[in-house]
Amino acid sequence: MLITVLTSQKAPAAAAVLVGKNVAIVLGSYGSGVSIAASETFKNAGVAAMGITCTNPNVTAGNDHYFRICFLDPFQGTVLANFAAKELGAKKAYCLGELGNEYDQGLISYFTEAFKAAGGTVISDSFPTNNSDFTTYINKAKSEGCDVFFCPVSIAYSTQIVAQAATKDVSFAILGSDTLDDNMVLDAAKGTDIKLYVSTFYAEGGNADFDAGIKEYINTNADAKTANGGNDTISAVTAMGYDAYFVAIEAIKAANSTDPGAIKTALPTVKYTGVSGDIAFDDIGDAKRDTAYIKTADNDNAAWKFVTQQSAK
Amino acid sequence: MLNEKKKLNKGSLITLIIILVFLIATIVLENTINPNSLLFTVIRKAAVYSLVAVSMNLLNGFTGLFSLGQAGFMLLGAYTYAILTIPNDVRDIIYYLFQGSSFHVSTVGFFEGILGDTGVAAFISMILGVIIAIVAGGLVAALVAYLIGLPVLRLKSDYLAIATLGFAEILRAIFQWDKLGKITNGANALRGYPTFSDFNIKAENGATVLRLSSFIPLLFAGICILVIVLLINSSYGRAFKAIRDDEVAAEAMGINLAKHKMMSFCISSFFAGVGGALFAMFASTVQAKTFTSAMTYEIFLIVVIGGIGSISGSCIASFLYIACSEWWLRFLDNTQYINGTQLPLFRNGFRMVVFSVVIMVIVLFFRDGLFGDKELPDLFKKRRVKKDGE
Amino acid sequence: MANNVLHVENVTMQFGGVVAVDNLSMDINEGEIVSLIGPNGAGKTTAFNCITGVYEPTNGLVEFCGKPIVRNHPQGKMKKNYLGQNPDMYLGEVVANTPDIITQQGIARTFQNIRLWKSMTVFENVLLAKHMNAKQNVFSATFRFNKKEEERMREETMELLVQQGLDKYKDEIATSLPYGLQRRLEIARALAAEPKLLLLDEPAAGMNPQETEELTAFIRQIRDDYNITIFLIEHHMNLVMDISDRIYVIEFGKEIAHGLPKEIQKNPKVIDAYLGG
Amino acid sequence: MEFAVSQILSGISLGGQYALIAIGYTMVYGILRLINFAHGDVFMIAGIMMIYMATTLPLYIAIPAMIICTVLLGFLIERAAYKPLRAAPRMSVMISAIGVSYLLQNLALYITGGQPKTYPRIPWISDTVTIFGARTYVVTLVTPFLVIALVVALTLLINHTKIGIAMRAVSKDFETSQLMGVKINTVISVTFIIGSFLAAVGSVLYFTNYPTVVPMSGAMPGLKAFVAAVFGGIGSIPGAVIGAFIIGICETLIKGTDYAIFSDAFTFALLIVILVAKPTGIFGEKTTDKV
Fold first, then answer.
1. Min CA distance, B355 vs chain D (Å)?
2. Assigned domain for A239 exists
């Protein structure tokens, strides 16, 4: 039973629909805002929910019904900061996030903390919602002499930032979080000299037979292909969704019943080696993860190239 | 209309009975059928929206001041309520990005200090704390309304609309500003404060004895709407209507326009603030980004559908609107099959398109909306008049 | 001489380059019925609006029962291109009141084109005139703590409607009444404000001779029943000559004649003004 | 230095885009006293139409086709949503405008599924050029000249053509011009046609500079263009253009400072200040309403 929710404002009602059908466990959501907004409804109904790629700590903090299989913002922010400082040797970073978006602002504050700890300096700005002119921010980053432009923003904005940066022959590299791991961003960077690095949960090539299986499914199923942006590149969310599904099955097997309450108690004990690495839950309900994939955009033929597995240390 | 002299006329009596039946049915239903059914989400959200719609109607419908700032005042009410009632132990986790909040008073905590924080005492102090916070939300909204009203209320109708719309946008930008993170938690959501489901009466072992989580919003919204009805039928309500009908004549009859407009603006903003606090309790999270101009448009279109200048119109229209948008018309978004063949248009977003077309039809051809400026009691009176053949 | 109710002194109103009212001076004493007549566009309604605070006169003084309610001298751009007389006579303190304050002091008015509140009944239209003086605030009114005030207002309104013979239309929507009755209602509404001075702006406009006759008796009867002073603008000469104690005549904003009805009838300048000699 | 140049450049180009939309607002308001909330969304729909047309038709057909469709859309909106309310109170016409804006946004959301769409590259103006060391699109330089040319053409039309005089008459006094035999509906339709034409041209320039279109990308430029129209003096076309450039440049400069998050808020604060201090704006003339 799939429900797509566009705004966190509609989340409580959508969650009520799921709970109304008394499902055993809820997989979702992909975004932190929507997950937090729906959390109360799941708690009242006593149904366990498993976040797939929502990385905001608030999703699981202070409750026992919300779990997740992905890493958290503090981890992702630190990993990106380490990557920028150590691998790219950046001394000065420019951070740009959407005003009022808890995902962007959270990541920027963790990145700033880790980057400053690594001896760098940070300048950060926020743009108003529905903004489309990013040239001024790019000019500012250029004139401040920043080595890296960190913009963990949603796809609509990141495609614009990359496209507009391409016209300004910028020297700095653009650094993005898991939201930039998308074909639209790849298209925007195609044929430009933009250096784009993105952190993500899974990069194609991490698990050969999974890649083959998924590619075969995408190419044979028309709707799946269009949903995937018209090509068969594997995005991290697909891999994470795949893993979440199996973790849920493990939980149901462990509780050997489909009663939501039993599954909720069984879920923390589940250990599962998925496509995106081995998954186990800590006492708060977050996944114990120690590395994140970093990949870069190969602009000539619009594909992702695996770079490294960066750790938070 | 309710006039004090005669006993409540027949129409209003029937209306009161209908409202009472609806309230009792809500309690009974909630404790019998599946408490997570969508019906209760609709009831809770519709109760909140009807209060805000009525407060907007008081301004646009009864005083003729065309304001589009309702989302801004809801934001103030919601944030004030949340900040005042987040329990102190959870407060620093929620404000994690800003190393804790600089605001450590909680109305609920205050009463718990006096009455004790276990069992019945905790429940009572929770209720008192929530009510105080809701009223505080309204007061903050009314105060800010007074400040913005001074320059803005002199403007002509369409300029007033744009100025109030702009004001709500400015407010949202301020509340998302990370420099104020210590108070507003910046872009992050505020949560953990008492919501409607905290009003369910629980026995010692935590089992729910009586579910009130859908009755409470109706009760709170109902009380506020009753106050607005009393205001509109009072001498000041007639002054507002005079300003709407003919401002020049009203001023010539000794009505101080600036004072009365400001009064209407502040009272409407007070109830929008209370509505914002109730919305926070409904949504269980408060984030500035939900209070957009799209929310004001949504509420304004509810007022238009119900009938500008009709309170019962706004209430009934908000129940219909929320029921349709969240429940009945939801099927429009999912692909539908009639004996095997897939219907073409049905996919995500179709529901909102159908909705906007319906609204356009109402705005163009049923300009008075469902009720025009009549009230529910008038519906029953009309039949009476025909019978007596006056 | 009976004490003075309205004292208008050198009132001048200038819009850009056009002087609509030019140095107008008038006096109205208690109990009098005074008329202001003049051809169309002479500035009658503008003078009215200066007295009732709708416009702020460019220069001049208006006193009501000895107390200044409007006082102004040419300011800003007007200092340079002021065309009226004695520009420096009213320097110093400027008194400008909005119409509601002037009404509260005891001057009520009607309008050339009837301005009743279309969504309210006859009873409510008149009742609202009581709102300004009622001792209440928005909280006492909402929660009905102003029971006494509300009842007093309703009784006084009912009493007035009975006197004006409008009580059987009490629950009709004001604008659904015939034209003559609407005009009577507007005057009744002005009376409900318990004014000392009643300003009528062309009360007989659009009335046939028989209705005008009734209106003449009606106005005289109001003056006697409520012992108020009446100041009216009118074109119906027989109404003006029949009812007025004194008449002022203005043309192009300037006063051209002032005196008793019979003097005005024979005054050559007035005849020229009207017949366009 | 190079930073300042690129700031001014993007400020001017932003101002130029707002100008084209603001003219539409000023003309419609001048004549109908209506804030056409839907105008910003017509601008967005023009962008989306262009994207869908450019995928199938060659550019030199797609652009004129898009302009014609946008003009048709503007005309249709006026006839369907505003003409029936000609005699209605001002508030219901505004409600209708909000309804149309709501409909256009939801329609766009339905068609594109909410996914951002990238705007096609238009050969000449999408190329980049470097002046004083700052690299920018050619469109940034073209925009101001095109705007000035359009304004001159428009002012000529308003002052020296029959339809122009009719427009001015209607904006001065709606009822009297009707009595004088001016065909009101044609005049209003022409106003909407010109407004939509400018919005179509504006959308080509705007989305070339910022090549991603989402259903909400018309709302904010629309509101800012209205602020520019009021700032310049509602009803006056030169006023709207100058107001637009000032707002465009101010917004860009503020984005350069560390109060960048208040760039939108600044525009609205400016609006409230103008409305209160000088409601007629820079060039508008005082209109006294008779009692």
1. 8
2. yes
Are A56 and A103 in the same domain?
Answer: no
Assigned token pair, A59: 């999703």
Calculate how close chain A gets to D185, using CA atoms only, in Å: 35
CA angle, residues B172, A35, A275, in degrees to nearest 5: 135
With beta carbons less than 8 A apart as the criterion, state whether B152 and B167 touch.
Answer: yes
Q: Are B176 and A99 in contact (CB under 8 A)?
A: yes
The answer to whether chain A touches chain C by having 3 or more C-beta pairs less than 8 angstroms apart is no
Domain spans of chain D, in order of start: 2-277
CA A92 to chain centre: 24
* CATH for A157: 3.40.50.2300
| A147 and A191 share one domain | yes
* Interchain CB distance below 8 Å, D216 and A130: yes
Residues near C263 by beta carbon (within 8 Å), at least 6 away in sequence: C257
Q: What is the ipTM of this complex?
A: 0.85
CA–CA gap between residue C253 and residue B297 (Å, rounded): 50
- For residue A132, cis peptide bond before it (omega within 30 degrees of 0): no
> Comparing C-alpha atoms, which of C193, C198, C127, C135 is closest to residue C166?
C127
**By C-alpha distance, which of A305, A306, A308, A303 is closest to A191?**
A303
Strands (E) across chain C are located at 4-15, 18-29, 33-37, 59-64, 67-72, 107-109, 197-201, 229-233, 246-251, 254-259
Selection from B282, B277, B273, B86 nearest residue B188 by Cα:
B86
The answer to whether domain C1-106+195-277 has CATH 3.40.50.300 is yes
The answer to whether residues D287 and B244 touch, using CB atoms and an 8 Å cutoff, is no
291 residues of chain D, pLDDT tens digit each: 677 777 888 888 888 888 888 888 888 888 888 888 888 899 999 999 998 888 888 888 888 999 999 999 999 999 999 888 888 877 888 888 988 998 999 899 888 877 778 888 777 777 777 777 667 778 878 888 888 888 888 888 888 888 888 888 888 888 888 888 888 888 889 989 988 998 898 888 888 888 788 888 888 888 888 888 888 888 788 888 888 999 888 888 888 777 777 888 888 888 888 888 877 777 766 554 444
Number of domains in chain A: 2
Q: Count Cβ atoms below 10 Å from residue C51 Cβ, excluding itself.
A: 25
Domains of chain C, by residue range, sit at 1-106+195-277, 115-194
Q: Measure the CA–CA gap between C218 and C212, rounded to whole angstroms.
A: 10
Nearest chain D Cα to B346, which residue? D110
pLDDT, position C81: 81
If one looks up domain D2-277 in CATH, what number appears? 1.10.3470
| Tokens of residue B329, six digits | 């018309």
Interface check for B248 against chain D (CB to CB < 8 A): the answer is yes
Question: Rounded to an integer, what distance in angstroms lies between the CA atom of residue C101 and that of residue C88?
Answer: 26
Residues 346-365 of B with CB under 8 A from A: 348
Asked if B41 lies within 8 A of A13 by C-beta distance, the reply is yes
Tell me, yes or no, whether A43 and A84 share the same domain: no
Instruction: Say how far apart CA D289 and CA D270 lie, in whole Å.
Output: 26
